Amino acid sequence: MTKVYPNASGLASPPSSNGCESADPNPMVLTVWKKSLLFNCDGFTVFDSRGNLVYRVDNYMSGNNGEIFLMDASGTSLLTIRRRKKLSLGDRWLVFDGETADNPRFSVRKNVNLLNKKCLAHVSSPRKNDALLYEIEGSYGQRRCAVYDEKRRRVAEIKQKEASVKGVDLGNDIFRLVVQPGFDSALAMAIVILLDQMF
In whole angstroms, what is the distance from residue 70 CA to residue 80 CA? Predict the structure, then answer.
C-alpha cells in the first residue's frame, strides 16, 4: 500500500507564521490527510515533503463546528478557528492567533454571490476594516482550489495527490497543499480546514 505518512515519528517544526516562510524560491508541498492521528477523532494530519509531521487538527467531538485548533506537530495551538454565529446568508469564520479569542487575524466568508460561481470564499482582515486579502476559487469537492491575493497571484493551491503506484486511487481524503514562498502555510492550512467546514 502507498505510504501516506512515510516518517510519522519525525516532528518537523512548522514554518513560521509571520508570512515570510523562507528564502527558498520553490513552493512548499504538503501532504494533507483528512484523518486524525488520534483514535475516534475527526481532523487532519499534514506532512512535509520529507514525511515529517507538520500540522494536525484533532476534533474530539465529531460535528463540532464551533471551535477548531490548528496545531503544530507537538500539539501547540497555532491558530484557532471560530464560527461566528450571526443571522446572515453567508457563513463567517474568524481566525485567531494561538488560543486567543480577541483581535481576529482573518475573517473568512463563504461566497453567496450566484453570479460569481468560481469563487468559493473570501479572506479579509478585520484589522484593516475587512479589506479583501485573498479569494479562493475552484472546487473543494474535487480538491482543485487556488488561493489568489489582491493582485491575482496564486499563493496556494489544493491539488489531488497522485499515487506512486499505478492503479491506486487515494480518493479525496489525501491531497496536496502547495504553498508559494512568502505565503503563510498555517493560513493555507486554515483555509483548507474552513473549506472542509463550508463544503
Answer: 6
Query: How many residues make up the chain in this entry?
Result: 199
Strands 154-160 and 67-72 come out as: unpaired
Instruction: Dump pLDDT digits (tens) for 91-104.
Output: 789 999 999 888 99
Number of Cβ atoms within 10 Å of the Cβ of 84: 13
The helix (H) or strand (E) run that includes residue 94 is strand 92-97
Tell me the pairing of strands 106-110 and 42-47.
unpaired
Amino acid letter for position 116: N
Please give the Cα distance from 125 to 111 (Å, whole number): 16
SS3 23: coil
Q: pLDDT tens across 116-165, in order?
A: 678 899 999 988 888 999 999 999 988 999 999 999 999 999 998 876 66
One-letter-per-residue 3-state SS of 117-184 = CCEEEEEEEHHHCCEEEEEEEEECCCCEEEEEECCCCEEEEEEECCCCCCCCCCCCCEEEEEECCCCC
More confident residue, 6 or 144: 144
d(CA 187, CA 189) in angstroms, rounded, equals 5
In degrees rounded to 5, what are phi and psi of residue 196?
-65, -35
Integer angstrom CA distances of residue 191 from 6, 23, 68, 95, 181: 25, 23, 12, 10, 17
Predicted TM-score (pTM) of this structure: 0.81
